[in-house]
Design goal:
The chain is α+β, with helices and mostly antiparallel strands. Among the domains are: 3-124, Alpha-Beta Plaits, CATH 3.30.70.330; 130-224 and 283-340, Beta Polymerase, domain 2; 568-609 and 656-762, no CATH class. The chain is 40% helix and 15% strand. The protein contains 26 helices and 22 strands. The strands form 7 sheets. A 5-stranded mixed beta sheet has the order 7-8-11-10-9, sandwiched between helices. The longest helix is centred in the N-terminal third of the chain and has 21 residues, at 172-192. The protein is globular, with a radius of gyration of 31 Å. Residues 124-133, 233-279, 434-455, 554-566 and 608-656 have low confidence and may be disordered. Keywords: RNA-binding. It comes from Adineta ricciae (Rotifer). This is RRM domain-containing protein. Residues 43-117 form the RRM domain.
Amino acid sequence: MVLRCELCRIEVPDEHVLADHNNGKRHQALLTARERFETSQNSSIYVTRIKADHDETTLKTYFSRFGSIKNCFLDKEKHVYAIIEYENIDSANKCLEQSEQCQLDDGTRLKVKPRNQHEFKSKRMLISEQEFLNINKEKEIEQHAALIQVLNSQSTIDEQAEAIVQQEKLPEEILKLREDFFKELETMFGKHFPGAKLCLTGSMANSLVTTLSDMDLVLVLNDTYIEPQRLPSSSNNSGESMTIDENSCSNDIDIHQNKFKRNVSDGSSSRSLSPTLQTSTYSVDELLQMSIPDRLDCIRRLLRSSAAYVCHVQRIAQARCPVVRFCHKQQKIFCELSINNHLAVANTDLVRYYLIYEPKLRSLLYTIRLWLKQKDLVGKGHRFNTYTLFWMVVCSLQLDNQQLPSVLSLAERAHHKRQHGPWNCSIPDISQMEKKIPTGSIGKFHIHFKIELKSVYLEQILHNFFKFYSTFNANQHELSPWTGKLETKTPEGKLFAIYDPFEHDHNLTSNLSPSNWQKFQEECSLASQVLDEFSKKRLNKSWGLSLILTRKSLPQKNFAHEPHYPHSTNTIEFQTEQTNEQELENQIQLILKDVLLFEQVNYETISKKRPASPPNEVTPNKLAEKLDKTLSSKRRRTDDDNYTLTAPATGITYSKEKLYFQVAYRTWQDRRKLKRSIENDHQNASPYEREKLISKKLQEDPNHHLEMPLYMSMEMKFLPMTETEHNLRKVRIYFEFQATEQHQLFVDLTHFLTLYLPKMLTNPATN
């Protein structure tokens, strides 16, 4: 059941999360702000019939007879009205009771009435993509139902894909409004920076725009190359490239925010713009010599002073690509403006080249993007973005009989070389290609493949995409559109890596979570099965793309293939001075059982936990069998492939037996809330005893009881010592859990253990 906080305009999964949210600082701050707002309205009066020679002093002098005045606002342009705010509501009511007798000393009779009541809305909250979908939920559902009907009425999957493009693309009238807005910005920046050029990049520049797409802009002042900021790996995001992703730079912001907070930079960004603000004029050289925050502040002040149609101006300096983010008041679209981001401009030209070279790419991208949107795998956070999806499609075609040329081969053919920093960003001239496709060879790529690709149905290309990524071994290979080949993965590489076509050391999926990559591969496998079995039109039944565009995954029992039950796994790795494997295992058991209240069980105990259940139900008995098979001594993991069956590595000592645990209480959640009160009440207790008391408190709370126990398995091993590690041993612990509806609980739990276990093992009480 989904619950909603109307004040903060967010949705939460259950009442426990809602209760935590309601006690949070942000919600409480908004409650206080709403109370002040309502009190201010009820304590204010609205005054008209004011003359030009009346000022605030005159009004304050007269209306102070009814009570103490807190604030006085006078319309200074036309002197049409004034708002008088009293310190309390009684003074306002007293004035309203005598409103018929309000007359100034010069004889002017004033008209006094209560101030208009408006609904409280926090200006700090910017509407997010998810909120936009929730606000328009009914409309979106109707559109989706209509789309399914349209898809089922088509004759081929190629026609279905074209119907998706027509449904998803931005209407011409809205696109025209955005183009006019861009021209206004272009004129404004041209006045302040003569010779500079405002470039439109991203999805709008390449006609891949949807309703939720941001407008990505680059202010090119000169040829100076600005190196992207190197942020810590925890703050990098897959959506950092400002090219064709509607969430390009906002992802960098959200990753630092609380899950219920909105994209807020500072207090000034939440205020409406005023055209009366003063801004200093800087030359291009002066602007580029400033620090990043000062440079963005200068652009922000310029927007606030010269663009009255712009609001919510934000400075986003802590991002890989620093931007100024703002919103159009009427059109409600977000814009992200960067300075001298030459790579974004070059990437936009490269994307445009590929779209002209192979028009089917547009339909492919729209289809795959909508498919992943229904699976909640595209958007902000640890998901895919449009820019990454585009290059994933290109790479799959590059590796499929070289149906698309590599970026390297295009750079070699370019007549005009374009170098930005250390990166070669050259591509052939687009205008020449639009007129005539060149003949001959491009490296190993022969142009006659273009003719072959045009004869290939989009259905086959889409099917190959799903098949390619459902079987892609991300532990051994990584993708590069620059070379158009599979590259051997580096030891320190992420789970799945696809690199930017120009900036070769930038992994576009650096922030993609392992769980989302696993889900993506599973969905690719299911989509491939759908296209295998239901690719032909069926009378009065859904078929083809209408089947894969469901909001949830199709039940695997719908297919003739044997169902696959994936496992959720997590690995913890740390160093310890403990050299005895058995003693370390005992310490970990003590923390899990004595502190976190996990119950250790064996295989036989779990087997007898329940009687036999229907085949489709996941029970402790079936779970124990799965865990026993997957964690048996025959199945060992390697660093290269977590799912490969291999023999134990030489020189590594494995734990003699695996451990099973039953988890009945959510003792890993809300510990910080109880920590301070426990410390105050038990000041003489050791840190270890305090941790136990926190768990006891959580155990007594019914809200922290699990409806169905969670069963997990643990396996530990010591890694070989190196010459530099004198008295330290490296330990690796595997946790595994059979994936069911409790998958998210396991993810939260193992994330907690990743931080909690190493900290507790340093506690003397566990030694």
